[in-house]
Amino acid sequence: MIEVKDIYKSFGDKEVLKGVSAKMLPGKTNLIIGSSGSGKTVFMKCMIGLIKPDSGQVLYEGKDLYGMEEVELKELRQQVGMLFQGSALFDSMTVAQNIRFPLDMLTTMGLKEKMTRVDEVLARVNMEGVNKKFPAEISGGMKKRVALARAIVMNPKYLFCDEPNSGLDPQTSILIDELIRDITLEYNITTVINTHDMNSVMESGDNIIYLHKGLKKWEGSSKEIIFSDDEDLNNFIFASDFLRKAKEASRREAQ
Hints:
Blueprint: E1 2-11, E2 14-24, E3 28-33, H1 40-48, E4 55-60, E5 63-64, H2 70-77, E6 80-83, H3 95-106, H4 111-124, H5 140-152, E7 158-162, H6 170-187, E8 190-194, H7 198-204, E9 207-212, E10 215-220, H8 222-225, H9 231-237, H10 241-254
Parallel strand pairs: 3-8, 3-9, 6-7, 7-8
Antiparallel strand pairs: 1-2, 1-4, 4-5, 9-10
């Protein structure tokens, strides 16, 4: 489990995070939502060590990320997978080489063992047979699946996903959501996702943290969010007439 305690972060005079605390539950998809400028990207970067908070703690299984020795940090990095918003594949490398990259950097596995692992994760994301293709030769949705395969190639304990549905069509977005959710459950991963995608929120939100102007305004599940009385959250989620009417209908059915 990842536990964040009372995180503050400012850039100059701008206070971005204002005492945010939350728990990221293992075996669950933990979603961080909020409008642009809410602090959710900075919040995630604090959790993975890319930005150091001004105060507060980020605890991995009770150990403070920012108090770890170099050896502990190296061990933790080997347990973390990252799915970047733009996939972040190396254009000059084949699919197999891209997925193998963390194994080359962080393990002493032999080449045959690495290639076997590459084949395993490609099969897991339904991408068999594309080992020798380059990123330019596959679609955006396929790139995202390759990036997900790379993120899980080290069998991570923690998986971070930054806007995994960005730039994808609705059908492919659903596929990526399902893959992340299934992999999270299958391997009991602590998965943390930054997202604007409301389908992800409603379908995959085991644990949802809503940030607004640097504050945690609400926390709960996708089943609970539709009944929230927080005005800012409702304005964020039910911005369209369709979603607002769906909420009203659900409330009437529950009465």
